[in-house]
Write a structure and sequence with these properties.
- The complex is a heterodimer of chains A (about 260) and B (about 575).
- Chain A is mainly β.
- Chain A contains three helices and 19 strands.
- Chain A has one domain.
- In chain A, the strands form three sheets. A 13-stranded mixed beta sheet of chain A has the order 5-1-6-8-9-10-11-12-13-15-19-18-17.
- The longest helix of chain A has 5 residues.
- Chain A starts with a strand and ends with a strand.
- With about 575 residues, chain B is α/β, with parallel strands linked by helices.
- Among the domains of chain B are: about 150 residues, no CATH class; about 40 residues, no CATH class.
- In chain B, helix 4 links the parallel strand 7 and strand 8.
- In chain B, helix 6 packs across helix 18.
- The chains are: A mainly beta (about 260), B alpha/beta (about 575).
- Chains A and B meet through loops of A and helix 2 of B.
C-alpha cells in the first residue's frame, strides 16, 4: 500500500493542468520523483513540487494499491485523475474542470464541489462528488461521439446543465437538483435525479432518465405509454425524444 | 557548397534498375552527383536506402480539409506533440494540422506530396495551407469534373475553348493537373440526385461522364500536361460499382499519348471495386477490376487502402458523403462551390468486426496484389478517407507478408473468407516493388523527372531506413518492417538532413510545382465567356479570382508544349 499526500500551496488564478496526478503515474515513485514531474500552468511548465508539498508513505508498484490524498486549495487544479485505470484519489476541497475525465477504473472522491466536465467520457470506475457539480458531468467533450460509456458517477449536491450528454452506458445518480436538459442526446445508460429537473431528456435516443422530484418545462416531444412503480413510487413512463429518428429513450416522471 | 556522402547503403532505385546494390550516393547542392570532394559522411552500412517518397493522392490542405478540422475538435485532441526549438506543435490523427502533415511525412521518408482536390474558387486557401506545410515539395490537382465551363464547352463541342479554359484554370489556380470527381454526377447532386452509369446525361447540361472523361483526356493530351487525368469514378463507395471503374478505364484503352505515362489514372480503387446489389450482398470484385488494369496498359490505379480505426472522410463527391452519413448517423457537412464543384465531410469508424469494412480492407490489398505491373499501382490510403497516411508502414508490412495477412484475416469478420479473395493470394511484395509503389510509380505518373529516383541529376531526396533488407525476411519479421518504415534513420530533402533517428532536425519550406500550359491567344478565346458568367453568376469578380504568386513558396513552373496555337514564351521565374 502506498499513500501519497499532496498538499496544495497554490492560490493563483491561472489554472493548472494536472492530468499527471493519477495512481498509474505515481505508483512506485518516491516524493522526490513525484515532485519533479511536469505540470502546465497557463503556457508555462512548472514542477509538481512548485504547486504541491509531496509526502509518500509506503511503496507499491501496483497502482491498485496506491491512494492519493489531495489537500489544500485545489479549485484551480484541472484534470485530476484523467484516464486513471485503478487506485484511489481523494480530494478534500473543490476541484476544477475535467476531474476524472476518461477514467477507466479506480475511484475518485471529491469532498467539495466539482467544476464542469467531471467524469466526461469515462468508461469505468467510480466518481463520487460530495458537493455540487457544474455542467456536462459524464458528458462528451466538444466534438466527441460518446460521453460516458461505463462506470458510475454520484453527485450528492446539485448539478448544472447537460448532465450525461451523449452518455452511452454506465450510471449517474444525482441526489440534489439538475439544471437544464439532463440526458441530452443520451444513447444508453441510466441517470437518476432525486431532486428536481428542467427539460430532461432533450434529443435522447436511448437509455433511461428517472426524475424523482418536480419537472419544469417538460419536452413536448415525449409520448406517455404507461405507469410503473420504482422503489415504491408511482411514475409515468414516457418514450422519446420523438424529434429524433428511431428514438427509444425512456423518461420516468411523476404525474 | 554543401556535400554529403551516403555510404554503403543497400539501395533500391527501381527507375534506374538498381535493386538491392550496396552503393554510395553523392550529394552536392541538393542534387545527386557523380562525386564529391569534402563531404559530410553518413555511414549507413547495410541499411535500406530509397529515394524520397512521393505521395500521389492525399487530402492535406484547403477548405475541405480545414472544414474537417473545424468539424472534428475531438480529432485535434489526438496525436498531440509539443513544439520544440525548431518545430511547431502537432495535432490530429486523421485531420492533422499543417505542420504535423509535413513532419509526419518526413519522418516516414516522404519528401513530395500531392493535394488531390483543389477547387479553383478556393485555391487561395489551398495554397495558403500548402505554404505552411514544411519540408515537402507540393503539387495540387485542380477539380474539373463538373465545372460549368467544362460541361458547357463539351455540350457545344468546343474543344479549343475547353483546352483554353483548362490551361487558364490551371494557371490561375496554380494547379498541376486535371482532377475529375464524380464526372457529370456531381452536377446532379446539386439537385439531390446522382448518375447511375457513365453514359447517363446529367441535368441541365445533358453531358455524360464518358463525354467529360474523354474530352478532358483529349485536352490533357492537347495541352501536353504532365499528369494523366486523375479520376474519382461515379457511384464511388456504392455496392455494384465495379463495372463503372472498368468502363472508366476502358475509355483510355488505345488512346495515344506522347508522354511516358498512362493517360488515365483511376484513384482510390478500393472504393470502386464493389460487387453485389445492396450492402447485404456486398462483395469484392477486385478480380474483374484488376483484370482490366492488367490488360489495359493505359490506366493506372492507386489503392485507397482502408485500415481499421477512426478517420474522417472528405471528398468533392457530396452525394457519397451524404450516403455515408445516412449509413452511420454521424455528423456531416456538405458544401457547394458555386459553378465549380462541391464537397462533403463525415467521420467514420472502420471496424474489423463490421462485414462491409472487413471486405473493404481486403479489397485494397487485393488490388495491390493482383496488378502485375507495380508501375500501375500507387500505395495510398486516400488520406484521410481510407485511413490516415501514418498507416502506410502497416500497409507495406501487409503487402510484404502473407503470414501477417493470414493473421489479420483471422481477426476480422469471417465474411472476408467468402466474399473477398484475399486469403487465396500468395504474392508477397519485395523491397523493389515497395519502392516502386511508394515512389517510382508516382514520380513517373506525375512526370517528376527529378523525383522518385536517385540517379545522377535527381533531387537529393533520400530516405534511409533502420533495417537491413539482406538480413530481415519481411515475410516473417513483418513487425520489424512496420517499425522501420514508421520512422527513418535519415530523411534527406534537397541535400539537407531533415530527419535523424525519427526526429525532425531541420525545417525549411519546400517547393510548389504547377503547370503552365498557355498557348497563343488562349485567353482571348474564352474571355467573353468568362466575363459573361462571372458578372452573372459568380460571387467574386474575375479580377479577384485566382492565386497570385505571393501565395506560393519557391514556385517552380512546369512548362508544357501544347499542340494547339503557338507556345507563349513564359519568362523564367
Amino acid at each position: 500500500m502506498q499513500n501519497i499526500t499532496l498538499k496544495s500551496k497554490y492560490d493563483g488564478r491561472i489554472s493548472v493542468e494536472a492530468e499527471i496526478i493519477t495512481p498509474d503515474n505515481f505508483s512506485g515513485k518516491d516524493a522526490k520523483e513525484i515532485g519533479e514531474m511536469d505540470l502546465f500552468m497557463g503556457n508555462k511548465t512548472v514542477k509538481l513540487k512548485d504547486i504541491f508539498e509531496v509526502s509518500v508513505e509506503g511503496s507499491s508498484e501496483n497502482p491498485e494499491d496506491t491512494e492519493i490524498i489531495i489537500k489544500g486549495n485545489t479549485d484551480r487544479i484541472k484534470r485530476i485523475g484523467e484516464g486513471m485505470t485503478s487506485g484511489k484519489i481523494v480530494i478534500e476541497g473543490d476541484v476544477d474542470m475535467h476531474c476524472g475525465a476518461m477514467m477507466r477504473g479506480g475511484k475518485i472522491i471529491v469532498k467539495g464541489d466539482a467544476d464542469s466536465w467531471a467524469g466526461r467520457e469515462m468508461s469505468g470506475g467510480e466518481l463520487l462528488i460530495e458537493g455540487d457539480a457544474k455542467n456536462y458531468i459524464g458528458g462528451a467533450y466538444r466534438g466527441e461521439t460518446y460521453g460516458m460509456t461505463g462506470g458510475k458517477i454520484t453527485v450528492k449536491g446539485n448539478v448544472g446543465a447537460y448532465l450525461g450528454e451523449k452518455m452511452k452506458d454506465g450510471e449517474i445518480v444525482v441526489e440534489g437538483d439538475a439544471d437544464m436538459i439532463s440526458g441530452m442526446e443520451m444513447l444508453g445508460g441510466k441517470i437518476i435525479i432525486k431532486g428536481d429537473a428542467i427539460m430532461p431528456g432533450g434529443e435522447m435516443k436511448g437509455g433511461t432518465v428517472i426524475v424523482m422530484g418536480e419537472v419544469t418545462d417538460r419536452m413536448p416531444t415525449f409520448k406517455m405509454d404507461g405507469m410503473e412503480i420504482i422503489e415504491g413510487i408511482e411514475f409515468n413512463r414516457y418514450t422519446g425524444d420523438l424529434s429524433v429518428r428511431r428514438a427509444k429513450g425512456v423518461l420516468y416522471m411523476k404525474g | 557548397m554543401s556535400e554529403l556522402l551516403i555510404k554503403n547503403g543497400i539501395v533500391y532505385d527501381p527507375l534506374n534498375d538498381i535493386c538491392g546494390e550496396k552503393k554510395d550516393i553523392f550529394v552536392r547542392d541538393g542534387k545527386i552527383v557523380e562525386e564529391v570532394k569534402k563531404p559530410e559522411i553518413l555511414d549507413v552500412n547495410g541499411l535500406l536506402v530509397l529515394p524520397g517518397g512521393v505521395e500521389g493522392h492525399a487530402h492535406l490542405s484547403g477548405s475541405k480539409v480545414n472544414a474537417g478540422r473545424l468539424m472534428r475538435p475531438e480529432d485535434g485532441r489526438r496525436g498531440l506533440r509539443r513544439k520544440t526549438a525548431i518545430t511547431m506543435p502537432e495535432s490530429g490523427y486523421s485531420v492533422i494540422n499543417v505542420y504535423g502533415e509535413g513532419y509526419r511525412y518526413a519522418r516516414m521518408g516522404y519528401t513530395t506530396m500531392v493535394e488531390a482536390a483543389m477547387p479553383i474558387l478556393t485555391a487561395i486557401h489551398t495554397h495558403e495551407e500548402l505554404r505552411d506545410i514544411p519540408i515537402l515539395d507540393k503539387l495540387s490537382m485542380t477539380l474539373f469534373g463538373f465545372n460549368w465551363f467544362v460541361m458547357d464547352y463539351i455540350r457545344k463541342g468546343e474543344m479549343d475553348k475547353l483546352a483554353a479554359y483548362v490551361a487558364w484554370a490551371l494557371k490561375i489556380s496554380k494547379g498541376y493537373g486535371i482532377k475529375i470527381v464524380n464526372p457529370s454526377g456531381g452536377e446532379n447532386w446539386k439537385w439531390g440526385k446522382n448518375v447511375s452509369s457513365i453514359d447517363e446525361p446529367n441535368i441541365s447540361f445533358g453531358v455524360s461522364a464518358r463525354e467529360i472523361l474523354s474530352s478532358l483526356m483529349e485536352v490533357n493530351e492537347i495541352l501536353d500536361l504532365p499528369h494523366p487525368i486523375h479520376v474519382h469514378c461515379n457511384r464511388l463507395g456504392q455496392p455494384g460499382n465495379y463495372d463503372i471503374a472498368i468502363d472508366t478505364m476502358k475509355i483510355s484503352s488505345g488512346f495515344e499519348t506522347k508522354r511516358e505515362r498512362e493517360p488515365l489514372h483511376v484513384t482510390h480503387i478500393m472504393f470502386s471495386s464493389y460487387g453485389g446489389e445492396k450492402w447485404k450482398d456486398f462483395e469484392s470484385k477486385t478480380d474483374e477490376v484488376t483484370k482490366e488494369v492488367n490488360s489495359n496498359k493505359n490506366a493506372s490505379i492507386d489503392l485507397g487502402q482502408l485500415m481499421f480505426g477512426d478517420t474522417t472522410t472528405m471528398t468533392a463527391d457530396g452525394a457519397l458523403e451524404f450516403a455515408l452519413c445516412k449509413l452511420t448517423g454521424s455528423k456531416w457537412s456538405n458544401s457547394d462551390t458555386e459553378m465549380e464543384t462541391g464537397g462533403g465531410i463525415t467521420p467514420q469508424i472502420y471496424s474489423p468486426s463490421m462485414p462491409i469494412n472487413a471486405i473493404q480492407w481486403a479489397i485494397g490489398l487485393e488490388s495491390a496484389l493482383l496488378v502485375k505491373n507495380p508501375y500501375q499501382v500507387w500505395l495510398t490510403t486516400d488520406h484521410p478517407n481510407g485511413a490516415p497516411f501514418t498507416t502506410y508502414p502497416e500497409v507495406i508490412s501487409l503487402l510484404m507478408s502473407k503470414d501477417r495477412r493470414k493473421k489479420e484475416i483471422e481477426r476480422v469478420n469471417k465474411v472476408v473468407q467468402k466474399r473477398a479473395i484475399l486469403s487465396s493470394l500468395d504474392r508477397e511484395y519485395g523491397w523493389n516493388e515497395i519502392a516502386t509503389i511508394t515512389r517510382a510509380s508516382q514520380a513517373k505518373a506525375y512526370q517528376l523527372n527529378d523525383k522518385g529516383h536517385i540517379g545522377v541529376g535527381a533531387d537529393a531526396d533520400i530516405a534511409v531506413f533502420n533495417i537491413n533488407p539482406e538480413e530481415v525476411d519481411p515475410s516473417k519479421d513483418y513487425e520489424e518492417v512496420e517499425r522501420a518504415f514508421s520512422a527513418t534513420k535519415y530523411t534527406i530533402k534537397g541535400g539537407e538532413i531533415v530527419v535523424r533517428d525519427g526526429e525532425i532536425v531541420k525545417v525549411f519550406p519546400g517547393k510548389t510545382l504547377w503547370t503552365n500550359a498557355e498557348f497563343d491567344g488562349y485567353y482571348e478565346l474564352i474571355e467573353d465567356d468568362l466575363k459573361d458568367w462571372f458578372s452573372k453568376y459568380y460571387t467574386v469578380s474575375l479580377s479577384n479570382y485566382g492565386v497570385s504568386d505571393v501565395y506560393l513558396t519557391n514556385p517552380e513552373v512546369i512548362k508544357t508544349n501544347p499542340k494547339i496555337g503557338g507556345r507563349i514564351e513564359v519568362p523564367a521565374e
